[in-house]
Amino acid sequence: MVGTRPEAIKLFPVINQLKAQTSAAVTVCATAQHRHMLDQVLRLTNIVPDIDLDVMRANQTLDQLTARLLQNVGEVLDQVRPSRVIVQGDTTTAMTGALAAYYRRIPVSHVEAGLRSGDIYAPWPEEVNRKIIGTIADQHFAPTARAAEALRRENVPEERIHVTGNTVVDALLAARSIVDSDPRLASRWDSIRAAHGNRRIVLVTCHRRENFGAGILGIADALQTIVKRQDVAIVLPLHPNPNVADVLSERLSGHPRVELITPQDYTDFVGLLSLAYVVLTDSGGVQEEAPTFGKPVLVMRETTERPEGVEAGTARLVGADRDRIVAETFRLLDDDDHYSAMSRAHNPFGDGHARERIVKVLLDA
Ligand SMILES: CC(=O)N[C@@H]1[C@@H](OP(=O)(O)OP(=O)(O)OC[C@H]2O[C@@H](n3ccc(=O)[nH]c3=O)[C@H](O)[C@@H]2O)O[C@H](CO)[C@@H](O)[C@@H]1O
């Protein structure tokens, strides 16, 4: 089941590995909870969904989305009658996929299991989605030892927990090799580099619900202050949600050193990441990717269910508070020792081989 961009990014390595290693039928069901950004990833990775539910509607409430998904996914399961359902992460797609499978007694595998913030309202509603999936799944693919530990605390039996690494690192490395073999994609990376000359690129992404309103205003204030520096350029792929896009465009568009761009194809975004000096984000996936390229991450959230980056010293939590964001960014720009300590290229989230471990468990079951 795939519904959103990050699910497609994190599942394409597993889908491709499964297809390469088994003659069992692999049916990809896209719910298209997010249409455009999901399609960008599917196109790039040559995945053509066998079933496309196209459930995205403008301004849909969580109730409407959940009800529609549960019903539609249930119908798909009745039609396909799979022997197992694989879901990833914490979206409404993943939660309803697991629930519809449970209603039919079909076993569920959970990729990226065991992430917990401990607060059911941050991230909302993902924290509870994860817990529901965790209650149902019989195979839990925990990206890290810490995630496995969270599952043990919830009494998940040891033999059902598999520490695999996060498939996002597999995806990132695959994206880099797609670029290496395609001169057109590689030349886009060169033009990004050329466009900014000697300026240091601060790459920004934000879209979390918890930051809508006051949070986005704080972030916009911080970015306006940071970009007063002549040695910095801000590059910001704008999430289409109007709660984010409207505020940030109003406050930042037209500035000569701010590039507000549309959501990027995954390979182009990976290019931006590899060229950035510092990353400011509230995204889950970006926190997990940046350490592979040794890029310090300032996480614009108060909590994270991905504390491994903070513990490894490659990320810091700065919330959505203007002064904290500005102070930590300036420290990275001005203090070389601090910068090199945070940019140690070690990724605590994965080693790029998660898909092989996951597929081995799937096929051995
Ligand atoms: C609560 C929480 O943390 N939930 C997470 C959140 O996922 P996220 O925060 O990781 O989501 P995004 O930031 O949208 O995606 C990030 C990916 O997109 C790539 N990217 C980015 C910009 C661009 O222009 N082009 C791109 O290709 C980028 O490299 C990265 O891989 O929501 C998901 C679904 O609700 C959850 O499953 C997931 O746990």
Automatic annotation (TrEMBL):
Q: Per UniProt, which keywords does this protein have?
A: Isomerase
Enzyme Commission (EC) number: 5.1.3.14
Can you name the source organism?
Vineibacter terrae
Q: What is this protein called?
A: UDP-N-acetylglucosamine 2-epimerase (non-hydrolyzing)
Source domain of life: Bacteria
Q: Which reaction does it catalyse?
A: UDP-N-acetyl-alpha-D-glucosamine = UDP-N-acetyl-alpha-D-mannosamine
- GO molecular function terms noted in the UniProt entry: UDP-N-acetylglucosamine 2-epimerase activity
Q: Name one Pfam family in it.
A: Epimerase_2
**UDP-N-acetylglucosamine 2-epimerase domain boundaries:** 17-362
Q: Which SUPFAM superfamilies match?
A: UDP-Glycosyltransferase/glycogen phosphorylase
The family assignment reads: Belongs to the UDP-N-acetylglucosamine 2-epimerase family.
> What residue stretch is flagged as signal peptide?
none
- Gene3D superfamilies (UniProt xref): Glycogen Phosphorylase B
Judged by the first EC level, this protein's enzyme class is: isomerase
